Amino acid sequence: MSKLQPVRGTADLLPDVMAQHRLVIDTARQATARYGFQEMATPIFEFSEVFSRPLGESSDIVTKENYSFADRGGEQLTLRPENTAGVVRAMISGGLTQSLPLKYFYAGPMFRYERPQKGRMRQFHQVGIEYLGPNDALADAEVISAGARFLAQLGVLPHCVLHLNSLGDAESRAAYRAALVSFLQTHESALSDDSKRRLVVNPLRILDSKDTGDRDILQTAPKLQDYLNAVSKAHFQTLTTALDAAGVTWVFDPLLVRGLDYYCHTAFEFVTDALGTQGTVLGGGRYDGLSEMLGGPAVAGVGWAAGIERLAMLAGDAAVVVPKVAMLSTDPETDLAAFQLAETLRDTGVDIEFPTAGAIGKKLKKAARSNIRLAIILGGDELAKNTVQLRDLTTGTQAEIAMADLADAVAAALLAP
RNA sequence: GCGGGUGUAGCUCAGUUGGUUAGAGCGCCAGUUUGUGGCACUGGAGGUCGCCGGUUCGAAACCGGUCACUCGCCCCA
Fold first, then answer.
1. What value of ipTM does the predicted structure carry?
2. Domain made up of A15-169+229-315: CATH architecture
3. How would CATH label the architecture of A325-415?
4. Amino acid whose CA is nearest the C1' of B33
5. Domain coordinates of chain A in residue numbers?
6. Nucleotides of B under 7 A from a protein CB
7. Residues with Cβ < 8 Å from A214, sequence gap 6 or more?
8. How many Å separate Cα A282 from the centre of its chain?
9. Nucleotide B70: nearest residue by CA–C1'?
10. Nearest nucleotide to A278 by CA–C1' distance?
11. A102-141: per-residue pLDDT in tens?
């Protein structure tokens, strides 16, 4: 690495990309605020156990895919790989279980040590919501509707399909898991090597295997929905009825699963085929068991997270906000007066560009190229008369006006179409 | 972690079977225009050909390694 380059899997967010991120974040905040979700933030790093306890100390995720380190005091810390655990930890730490329900929105960077691909960075960014407290299906419906509304406002919902499944409650899950494992064990020799391994560490994940041989076997495997008990069936029924009533379209995806035990009932993903293999754009579900795994009281929760990079790619270009007015001094003798005049105009609420170097011709050229609409030109002649030249760069018209009238003239010119 | 592809100027890319000072367009800078932009013309800057090593009289090109990006697998809290 002789050239100075960013760390693998990280990227600078230069203004045009940052504007896309800004649009995604602002749209998410506004869409979820409509449901009462309030923005909050947790620290970017936590004690490692916040992330390792729900996952299991020895899982691949914890041992291979987290950015973990000991700080100078010897504390084992981890850069957050996702934000749900941090939000639930904040609820427990702050005694917020006295104030349920909680509806939180967040946005920020997450860190996972994975092999980078398009739409999969080591530092990436997410927006998300968590709804803590309720365990009823209408809460799930509201969370999913908020996600759909966000994607719709961003203009990407037409490119996405909402996949929906029910994992059932703990009892249903356990019963299904046992049935699936015993079925797959009778077919173990025909499974792919990956799935043989998954059969031990995470059997539900075999359901979304991409191996064609595995898929053939799964044709005759026991179905998750056949193992849902009455409570689980009712939960899913209420959810889908509510989504239909809200006009949120969805498809049943019996192979959509979550591997970890604290998940239950609802699992959902908005998926696009426009981004290659990294197609999930917003995903989430219900995690009623998480708070207890973190050492807190039993508090139900449901939420989602969405990848800002992927959404930005789908949403396309966003406008970078730049000044529409430039203050141009013709020579060094008028620089200070122009600087002062620019300040007084900024006081009136106008964004002003003030190029400090170059001849007036160069300044005008630069202004025109950067889509500046109005150029205020101040030279010695004008300064002596307390006037400026106000030039409209789109029409090429120019007028001499008194400095006292400048703020009004600029405001009027910017209002014109 | 595994497999495939790619890497030449700020950007998009040429570069013949290995051959002498590595090119184009766009962009950038300057001039034609010393107080007025877009157009045009002229000129200029910018590259140890991702990096390291090897083969060779000679490497941007061939070989090995490495780094990064990319496509897929794995993982996906």
1. 0.89
2. 2-Layer Sandwich (3.30)
3. 3-Layer(aba) Sandwich (3.40)
4. A361
5. 15-169+229-315, 173-221, 325-415
6. 1-2, 28-31, 33-38, 48, 50-52, 67-77
7. A191, A192, A195, A206
8. 8
9. A117
10. B76
11. 999 999 999 999 998 888 899 999 999 999 999 999 999 9
